[in-house]
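Subject: for your reference before the review

Hello V.,

The reviewers asked for a structural picture of the protein, and I figured it would be easier to keep everything in one thread rather than splitting it across files. Below is the amino acid sequence we used in the manuscript, unchanged from the supplementary table.
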Amino acid sequence: MQLEVLNYERLKAQDNDEVQKLVRISSNAGIFFLDLSGPSTKDFLADLQPIVHAQRKFFAQKSELKLAYANDLEGRGYDSFDELFVQRLKLSREEQIQGTLNLPTDLQKVEANLANVASSTDAVLRDLSMLLCKSLDPPVPTAVVDNPKNPGRSNMCLGLATAPAGTSLMGSHLDEDLLTITFYDEPFLEVLERTSQEWKLVEVFENLPIVNIGDSFQSVSNGRLFTPFHRVKQSQREINLVMYDLNVGSQ
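And here is what came back from the structure prediction:
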């Protein structure tokens, strides 16, 4: 499945054609590739590889060491689905801002990289959200996204999947947040195409991240924005993910 590509620098400059393209895609497909090449994003893109290297070292640790970072609160801490060979570590944006984030030793070494990626992706998704809010007719109140000091349940999710190829890792679902951005190295995402109602695999394309509309944005826009059903399957090789969910709902 070939997603359309949006250029962040043009969106940031409020190029009318690109903004209208954002609204069209978000209202119809609800998912797109985001081209982040440009001066405002090159620094944090360079931080991704050290993070992936560090998270792989953490996920290779013994279970008892990793379970020390489990958390009962939704969207925070370590969890695993051993029968599916899936591990995740969710880092709360709120705790990161407050300076209370408890990082494993392997990730302490890339704490500055994590902070830069989290703050940068948060800003990118808030920029996109503000453009969508203001460009819809009638507009959506921007109070849902205009305060970066109110992160709500936003988080960065680090993930590793090493299941046999073709294994279903997550069934059909909608993301509950406003927007999600996913950096990935292997094709893993299948999307239910809106028109054909067929499941289609999103391939890797020039290492561009995927952005998708969440259920909260579909709700606050009164259905004018579209959130697509999607599912996750294991590729031929291990999957390394760095995701950021913009979710301003309360804990």
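For the response letter, the relevant points are probably these. Residues 69 and 103 are 8 Å apart (CA to CA). The chain has a mean pLDDT of 95.

Happy to draft the paragraph if you're swamped.

O.
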